[in-house]
Design goal:
The complex is a heterotrimer of chains A (569), B (374) and C (288).
Chain A: H1 3-17, H2 28-50, H3 58-74, H4 79-101, H5 106-126, H6 128-131, E1 137-138, H7 147-168, H8 171-182, H9 184-189, H10 194-220, E2 222-223, H11 230-243, H12 250-265, H13 272-286, H14 290-307, E3 332-343, E4 346-357, E5 360-365, H15 372-379, E6 387-392, E7 395-396, H16 402-405, E8 409-411, H17 424-435, H18 441-454, H19 470-482, E9 488-492, H20 500-515, E10 519-523, H21 527-533, E11 536-541, E12 544-550, H22 551-556, H23 558-568
Parallel strand pairs in A: 5-10, 5-11, 8-9, 9-10
Antiparallel strand pairs in A: 1-2, 3-4, 3-6, 6-7, 11-12
Helix pairs in contact in A: 2-7, 2-10, 2-11, 2-12, 3-4, 3-5, 3-10, 4-10, 7-10, 8-17, 11-12, 11-14, 12-13, 17-18, 17-19
Chain B: H1 2-16, E1 24-30, H2 37-56, E2 65-71, H3 76-88, E3 93-96, H4 100-106, E4 115-118, E5 131-133, H5 138-151, E6 156-162, H6 165-177, E7 184-190, H7 198-204, E8 211-214, H8 221-230, E9 237-239, H9 246-252, E10 260-265, H10 276-293, H11 299-317, H12 324-333, E11 336-337, E12 341-342, E13 357-363, E14 366-369
Parallel strand pairs in B: 1-2, 1-3, 3-4, 4-5, 6-7, 6-8, 8-9, 9-10
Antiparallel strand pairs in B: 10-13, 11-12, 13-14
Helix pairs in contact in B: 2-11, 3-4, 5-6
Chain C: H1 3-32, H2 39-55, H3 60-83, H4 91-113, E1 129-131, E2 134-136, H5 138-160, H6 162-172, H7 174-179, H8 184-210, H9 216-230, H10 235-256, H11 258-276, H12 284-287
Antiparallel strand pairs in C: 1-2
Classes of the chains: A alpha/beta (569), B alpha/beta (374), C mainly alpha (288).
Chain lengths: 569, 374, 288
């Protein structure tokens, strides 16, 4: 075991023993409550911190299993069965709520879960004969357990929860969730089924709350409707944020700190709320990524010093992904037939048709607003055409959602859409996770690294993207689009902002893709570059194709000059 | 942050530096923040007055009295932490001034003591436990109201109750007490977050009741009075005992109903007290508290006094106040002479009955026995 | 008494409050892109300042002026001192800053007036108006008229005046707006000032009818937020949503009782949210 691991274990042991050290306000009773709440908040951290879904229903999901199990227990159902049914039913409700709510973006998800919290609280209040009403539902079974035993249970369950959390949120899942959090559209384009992944994360997150809430109810002995309410949820969101959104230890640090602050400021009577508010404000302003984010970097530095540099992993064989996927060079890859698109009263595309073959680089040119990006969006499924069809290798794509097109279509964006806090390598790997699930993690890393090295980005592979330049972002985005050699690669203005050297790399990569049989479409204003590398192309103007054919002929066409180059002159 | 550090340090030193003559320690759990902060803060400040008063006179049996406070925000989870911590600190008596749910969570924790004095009218403590109820239960309050209504020949009563625990119990008790006595009852509830009660009031005054009873006890009670005025109602309005206070009058003074009555402990109108010991105690408290705190004591403060005096009697009367069985036995067999006389017994841990309450009214800046309804 | 008339009257009154609060939230959202959780504090501060001033013997107009000035000062200071220097922070982090400010403000107000609710005399006194079996206090009429007028006025300002359009441009694309000559800082300060003033205006109109305490702020933010969110943060819709919410709440309470209010209302709210979001994809208004 590495020395930093040993140190972490020692610190954990100290933390577990700390309530017995007699530190003011930090008692075993408080630590027990903190541990149960943290267990529930691991789920909120997953939902809100990692995936970025602002949800206010966590308290309701902690109350739900308690009400379920408690009510069933009172009917005389065997205790174990009552608990099992309570937990299962609550997770089922979570799944149902997820199914309805993850479709809701941003503010609507917040309102929806807020409403859910009020519904649970209101129902608990409205049927006192079943739920105990406002006076609360009593759980007497936990009374025989001593305070120290409860603390031991709480620590054991929290440790288990942390292990499960760490086991779930790693590697590909982490990359996938962070990508969704940062940019759902880009996530779909790289092949992530955004709705399904969010629903799963939401359900798993709620499951943490369900288990924690049940345990807490038996520990506290009473549950009241307010326990399900929005005030509690708001408090919990605050605790996770103070602790550090998305950080592994965020919920623990936040819960412990906030609840302890409340205990300790109790000594200050009248000034309690001011001190609490001021401390909260100071934490928010001076520890922007929460306390966990604040100590993250020093800890990593310390760990590096303790363990020395990690040994470089031996280079793995680069798996080849395709060949059977590739069509015969010259066969038709993409066929766009009579595609039109209207936005309200605006005709963005009108009756556009063209074909692109395997082993061909195809240019799409035209002034801004000509419909190029709309066409790209239609090909990769972001927009549906008003009429016309898009076929890939003869198959109509109409019924295929965005993420299902990812194995066949790689796409880069005009402005790179990467996840700033993931490394360059992880940003590329997230696409491989979806299109090459059969590969091992290390193989995917090797493949992504090789692709980055092709652009001269190898040394930057393990740097977070936010520390890199915009030109580098562009290249990483291109790398991601091209990784795994998809049959069709769509590149939106790939040459913009690149240095001469990077341009050379780009030309080489495109040539390489072409040679391996991919069909490549580029939207580009750099005409010299287009003339150099593309064979055929199409010119769009106000949504209509005004020229189609060999690039040399197009560039010589008088109409094209007037519409496009004329406009520039 | 500096201030917090100072507090942490100070409490550390306090905790560490126990001196030779060990103080007597009483724990107190109250909701000092959150939606029912008023209830907690007022009870707590009366207990703090008691500590100051006792210690300035040399303490009890030569030992100083110390109080350990804990804010539970009326949250059962925090109340459990508070109770476990206070038990861990070895307090002699716990005063629990919190609300129904929070109190219910704490009672199982004192199965081996210490004695816990509670003031939550919705709870009837089992006499086999160490919990003692120092305030009249809601049922007793309802009976006291019944006596007043019968004396005034009221046959139709309208009642508005909150959707919280007190409202829930209040409704159940009203249904148990009034219809059998031949009083027709029109009931409505008001949500805790609501800031308008006019719809509910309009609904219950449809049948021209002879009195309107608001059992709402939170800070929102003012909402009921305000809505009453907004509707231009004139039916006599009786508010619950938690609202018999100057603060309540201050909030509603611009909207004073023509006939406002309140359910009060007899302590709010000392003239009603028959026992001179009770009377002397409340007069001393009202005077001393006003001088100490700079504001007049209200009913919640007086309730705090009852709790503190019960603890006081235990600390004076029991040789080893840390022996919960001895404390329980003492309480069960000794009337506590405070501003009211609390009579616990082995069969009932409820110290006050309906006769400790009266319907009062605010007149010339103070609370007095209510005039008959017009 | 006619329950339906009374429900409509009450619904209009609370609808006016919802609309006023929602408008303040929406105008800030449309210039700074954040949901200002400290918005309700302007209400609490306004109400408490007015009550303290009236208690100290100030004439009513002076107390109200003081309330509005202090609330504007609070809102602008929040933008200037805490939010403006952190414009590069994530939206979530900024929302957290406003939550922290709400907690801090709650503590300060608690120190100032303690935990009891406070109130002050009505601006429009006199016998309530009676019609069609319902009763409407004069102050309530003032609340409905002034509340909706103010909400509509600021919406019209936002939609139809050049300055209002600049305010909105400041949110949609701050950099582009800056290039077009919009003073983004000034636009945001103005939005916060308007929101603060509206919070205090709501307090001045509503508090005499209901009273206010130190922790009223968060509840008020929530009310406004629900109305604003139903409206999808759209300025004109926020007024309609506020009105609809007030009426629905009143009707449910009248015919089904207060215990049914939360479950039914919020189920309906979920339905509205689902319907509103049917066409929104990929992150929605918070991030897109």
């Amino acid at each position: 075991m590495s020395r930093s691991r040993l140190l972490a274990l020692a610190l954990a042991a100290l933390a577990i023993a700390s309530p017995y050290a007699g530190f003011p306000g930090w008692t075993p009773a408080l630590a027990t409550a903190v541990a149960f709440n943290t267990l529930g908040l691991l789920g909120l951290n997953l939902i809100f911190g990692v995936v970025g879904m602002l949800a206010f229903g966590q308290a309701a999901f902690m109350a739900l299993p308690a009400y379920g199990a408690g009510i069933l227990d009172q009917t005389g159902m065997p205790f174990i069965l009552a608990v099992a049914v309570g937990v299962a039913a609550s997770i089922l409700v979570a799944r149902l709520v997820a199914w309805v709510f993850v479709r809701l973006p941003g503010v609507y998800l917040a309102v929806g879960t807020l409403g859910f919290g009020y519904v649970v609280e209101g129902l608990a209040r409205a049927f006192p004969s079943i739920s105990g009403g406002a006076s609360g539902l009593v759980f007497s079974r936990g009374r025989a357990i001593s305070a120290d035993a409860w603390y031991a249970i709480a620590i054991a369950m929290l440790s288990l929860g942390l292990v499960v959390y760490a086991w779930y949120v790693r590697g590909g899942v982490w990359r996938r969730l962070r990508t969704i959090c940062h940019d759902e559209l880009a996530a779909a384009v790289v092949g992530i089924d955004v709705v399904r992944v969010k629903a799963t994360a939401f359900t798993i997150g709620c499951s943490f709350a369900v288990v924690a809430g049940l345990l807490r109810a038996y520990y506290v002995g009473v549950i009241i409707p307010e326990d399900a309410g929005v005030d509690r949820s708001l408090e919990q969101v605050g605790m996770v944020m103070v602790g550090g959104l998305g950080h592994f230890l965020g919920p623990l640090i936040g819960t412990a700190l906030v609840q302890w602050l409340f205990m300790i400021t109790g000594y200050a009577s009248r000034y309690e709320l001011v001190i609490y508010g001021a401390a909260f404000l100071a934490a928010v302003i001076y520890a922007r990524e929460g306390i966990a984010g604040w100590i993250d970097r020093p800890w990593r530095r310390l760990a590096r010093r303790l363990d020395g540099e990690a040994p470089r992993e031996p280079a793995l064989r680069q798996p080849t992904l395709r060949s059977e996927e590739a069509g015969k060079s010259g066969a038709v890859c993409l066929s766009v037939a009579a595609v039109s698109k209207r936005f309200g009263g605006v005709q963005a595309l009108e009756n556009v048709s063209f074909e692109v073959s395997f082993g061909e680089i195809f240019a799409m040119v035209g002034p801004n607003g000509a419909g190029k990006s709309t066409l790209f969006n239609i090909i990769c499924g972001i927009e549906a055409p008003s009429s016309g069809t898009v076929r890939l290798r003869g198959d109509d794509l109409a019924a295929l959602p965005i993420h299902r097109r990812a194995p066949f279509i790689g796409r880069s964006f005009q402005v790179a859409r990467l996840v700033p806090d993931l490394t360059a390598l992880a940003n590329v790997m997230v696409r491989l996770d979806r299109i090459a699930p059969q590969l091992a993690e290390a193989e995917r890393a090797a493949l992504a690294l090789a692709q980055l090295e092709a652009f001269g980005l190898g040394p930057l592979a393990n740097r977070p993207v936010r520390t890199l330049s915009l030109g580098q972002h562009k290249l990483i985005d291109l790398t991601r689009a091209a990784v795994g050699d998809p049959p069709l690669v769509l590149l939106d203005e790939p040459a913009v902002g690149l240095t001469r050297e990077e341009l050379t790399h780009l030309a080489q990569l495109l040539e390489q893709l072409r040679a391996r049989g991919s069909a490549v479409i580029i939207v580009e204003h750099n005409i010299d570059f287009v003339a150099e590398i593309t064979g055929r192309g199409i010119v769009l103007d106000s949504g209509r194709a005004i020229a189609l054919g060999a690039i040399r002929d197009i560039l010589a066409d008088q109409g094209v000059h007037e519409a496009y180059f004329g406009a520039l002159a | 942050m500096k201030r917090i550090a100072t507090i942490v340090l100070a409490s550390f030193l306090l905790a560490g530096g126990a001196n030779a003559a060990e103080p007597l320690v009483v724990g107190i759990i109250t909701p000092n923040t959150g939606p029912v902060a008023t209830v907690g803060v007022r009870q707590l400040s009366a207990v703090q007055w008691w500590q100051h008063d006792v210690n300035s006179k040399g303490g009890i049996r030569g030992r100083q009295v110390e109080i350990e406070t804990c804010d539970d925000q009326a949250n059962p989870e925090r109340a459990v932490s508070c109770t476990r911590d206070l038990i861990g600190k070895g307090v002699s008596v716990i005063i629990n001034g919190s609300l129904t749910g929070a109190v219910r969570a704490t009672i199982p924790l004192i199965k081996d003591g210490p004695v816990m004095l509670i003031a939550s009218p919705a709870i009837v403590p089992d006499p086999s436990t160490f919990a003692f109820q120092a305030t009249p239960t809601d049922l007793e309050v309802t009976r006291a109201l019944l006596a007043f209504l019968e004396a005034n020949k009221v046959k139709r009563l309208a009642m508005i109750a909150a959707t919280d625990a007190t409202g829930e119990v209040g409704v159940a008790d009203a249904q148990q007490v009034f219809p059998p006595a031949g009083i027709e009852l029109a009931l409505t509830r008001i949500d805790l977050r609501a800031n308008d009660a006019s719809i509910q009031l309009a609904n219950v005054v449809k049948n021209n009741p002879q009195a309107l009873y608001s059992s709402y006890s939170g800070a929102g009670a003012a909402t009921v009075v305000k809505s009453y005025t907004n509707l231009g109602l004139t039916v006599p309005l009786i508010v619950s005992n938690a609202n018999v206070s100057d603060a309540f009058i201050a909030v509603v003074k611009d909207d004073m109903p023509p006939q406002l009555r309140g359910m009060g402990l007899l302590t709010v109108a000392p003239d009603l007290l028959k026992d001179p010991v009770n009377k002397a105690r409340i007069e001393y408290f009202d005077k001393s508290y006003a001088a100490w705190k700079g504001e007049r004591a209200d009913q919640l403060n007086q309730l705090g006094l009852l709790l503190a005096d019960t603890a006081d009697a235990v600390l004076r009367g029991v040789d080893n106040p840390n022996d919960p069985k001895a404390v329980r036995s003492f309480l069960e067999h000794t009337p506590i002479k405070s501003a009211l006389t609390l009579n616990f017994s082995p069969d009932s841990h409820i110290g006050l009955k309906a006769d400790s309450m009266a319907v009062v009214q605010y007149k010339d800046g103070r609370w007095t026995k209510a005039d008959p309804l017009k | 008494m006619n329950p339906l008339t009374q429900a409509v009257i009450s619904g209009l009154m609370s609808g006016a409050v919802y609309a006023l609060l929602a408008t303040g939230l929406v105008i800030v959202f449309h210039t700074a892109q954040i949901v200002n959780i400290a918005h309700g504090e302007a209400y609490a501060i306004g109400g408490i300042v007015a009550a303290v001033a009236a208690q100290a013997g100030a004439p009513l107009w002076l107390a109200f002026a003081a309330a509005i000035v202090v609330a504007i000062f609070f809102a602008v200071a929040l933008e200037r001192v805490l939010l403006r220097p952190r414009r590069d922070w994530s939206i979530n982090a900024l929302i957290l800053v406003t939550l922290a400010v709400a907690f801090f403000s709650r503590g300060v107000l608690n120190l100032l007036v303690g935990s009891d609710p406070v109130s002050f005399p009505r601006l429009f006194a006199g016998a309530p108006l009676r019609f069609a079996g319902g009763v409407l206090p004069r102050q309530g009429l003032g609340l409905i008229v002034i509340g909706f007028t103010a909400a509509i006025a600021v919406t019209a300002f936002l939609l139809y005046t050049p300055l209002g359009r600049q305010l909105r441009a400041a949110a949609e694309n701050p950099d582009a707006a800056e290039l077009m000559g919009v003073d983004v800082d000034r636009a945001r300060a103005l939005a916060f000032a308007i929101a603060g003033a509206y919070g205090a205006l709501g307090a001045v109109l509503l508090v005499p009818l209901v009273s206010v305490d130190f922790q009223a702020g968060l509840g008020m933010t929530l009310r406004g937020f629900i109305a604003a969110a139903i409206a999808g943060m759209s300025p004109p819709l926020a007024i309609v949503a506020g009105l609809g919410l007030g009426l629905a709440e009143a009707l449910v309470t009248t015919y089904l009782g207060a215990l049914a209010q939360d479950p039914i209302l919020f189920l309906a709210l979920i339905g509205v949210a689902l319907w509103q979001s049917r066409k929104v994809r990929f992150g929605g208004s918070l991030r897109a």
